[in-house]
Amino acid sequence: MIEVHGYAIVSDDDRIADESGRTPDILRNDADWAYFQKELDKAAVTVLGRLGHEANPNPRGRRRLILSSSSSGLEQRSDGWWWNPQALSWNEAIGTVLPEGGRVAVPGGRRVFDLFLDIGYEAFHLSRAEGVRIPSGVAVFSACEQGLSADAVLSGRGLKPSAREVLDPKVPISLTIWRR
Ligand SMILES: NC(=O)c1ccc[n+]([C@@H]2O[C@H](COP(=O)([O-])OP(=O)(O)OC[C@H]3O[C@@H](n4cnc5c(N)ncnc54)[C@H](OP(=O)(O)O)[C@@H]3O)[C@@H](O)[C@H]2O)c1
User: Closest ligand 1 atom, CA of 70?
Assistant: First the structure.
């Protein structure tokens, strides 16, 4: 059994990065980071886009599956598995990476979040820096750039929200887990 969990921290207008493509400091939060790291410890593999992979060192040596058009399908390199979804299906890729099944953590970016909307999230852990807006930033899902909220996108895929939890009262940073 494969269970896909998505993780994002967004602004009130559902942005994961600013207009230059960088994560602004206001979306970096220690309590959210600690929650995310604890969640990654439960996952058998972390799936991320090439830029996120290159920007985030992997000191704990967690197993990674990196999306890139540079992969011919699926191959194992020294820093993880590299996958091109245009060349090989998800079922074939994950069947090779995790033949025993397990939890898959998906921390983005946007094209990766979009792809897994179709593959299917078991849960999406949506943290929010409340009261923050990032006009012209990069949205968590491309549909948010056409005016849909992230909540509407997730609920349109059959996920239901948990009660809002506060991870850090200072900003505040809240967490809602959307589950199938
Ligand atoms: N706030 C948050 O929760 C959050 C979450 C994630 C990211 N971010 C931030 O968002 C910013 C943007 O991230 P990003 O979206 O630019 O980078 P990204 O998703 O980490 O990497 C993009 C790259 O991944 C590969 N890729 C992604 N989807 C693919 C697909 N379907 N098929 C083939 N290759 C695919 C491509 O690599 P190739 O060029 O090699 O083909 C693409 O150039 C960064 O600043 C990051 O820190 C924030």
Answer: 40
Given pLDDT bands bounded at 50, 70 and 90, which one contains residue 72?
A: very high
- Mark residue 144 as left, alpha or beta (left: phi above 0; alpha: psi -120 to 50; beta: remaining): alpha
Q: Averaged over 71-89, what is the pLDDT?
A: 97
- Does 72 sit in the ligand 1 pocket, CB within 6 Å? no
Digit-coded pLDDT (tens) for 116-130:
999 999 999 999 999
Which structural domains are found in the chain, ordered by start?
2-179 (3.40.430.10)
Please tell me the pTM assigned to this model. Answer: 0.97
Q: Are 54 and 22 in contact (CB under 8 A)?
A: no
38 CA to centre of ligand 1 in angstroms: 22
Vertex 116, ends 15 and 81: CA angle to 5°?
105
Written as six digits, the tokens of 40 are: 């990654």
Residue 109, pLDDT score: 95
Round to whole Å and give the CA distance between 177 and 125: 4
Is 17 a pocket residue for ligand 1 (Cβ < 6 Å)? yes
Amino acid at 139: A
Does ligand 1 have an atom closer than 6 angstroms to the CB of 50?
Answer: yes
Residue-averaged pLDDT of the chain: 97
Mutate to test the pocket of ligand 1, among 19, 22, 26, 69 (most ligand atoms within 8 A of CB): 69
